[in-house]
Design brief:
Largest sheet: 4 strands, antiparallel
Strand content: 15-25%
Helix content: 25-40%
Order of helices and strands: HHEEEEH
Number of helices: 3
Strand order of the largest sheet: 1-2-3-4
Shape: elongated
Distance between the termini: 17 Å
Radius of gyration: 18 Å
Length: 127
């Protein structure tokens, strides 16, 4: 069954647009993997040393931007950790054109971009 495209419906695909879509697809997959990795951080055991906790906070800070100018889409992803003596807290924010969204919008965009790339034989369908 062919999926109906929400954002790509009726858009003529040029090589440059396909390359932009491919780049955005892989960036969005990285964002999803990062968000999934830090999903259960509250239950992680934090380091005992305060210096190591501060290092963990600095190391695990992500800001990523994916822009599809020909679709007027700009997705910003921000993730940071705050580590106390007992818990690890995650702060995550996803905005689409300045409006706060959930990770579900990233999943939907990944599916749409993946369909276009598979249809054009740019990437292979996962088994």
């Amino acid at each position: 069954m062919k999926r109906k495209y929400i954002i790509l419906d009726g858009l003529r695909m040029t090589q440059q647009r396909l390359q932009t879509i491919k780049t955005a697809y892989f960036k969005l997959k990285d964002i999803k993997e990062t968000a999934d990795h830090y999903k259960g951080t509250y239950f992680w055991k934090p380091p005992s040393s305060s210096g190591i906790r501060r290092h963990m906070e600095r190391k695990n800070h992500f800001d990523e931007c994916v822009e599809l100018a020909f679709l007027n889409l700009k997705i910003n992803f921000h993730l940071s950790l705050s580590v106390s003596c007992k818990h690890v807290y995650k702060t995550q924010q996803i905005t689409l054109n300045g409006e706060r969204k959930t990770l579900q919008i990233v999943n939907r965009l990944i599916e749409e971009l993946e369909d276009v790339l598979i249809e054009r034989n740019i990437i292979k369908e996962a088994a």
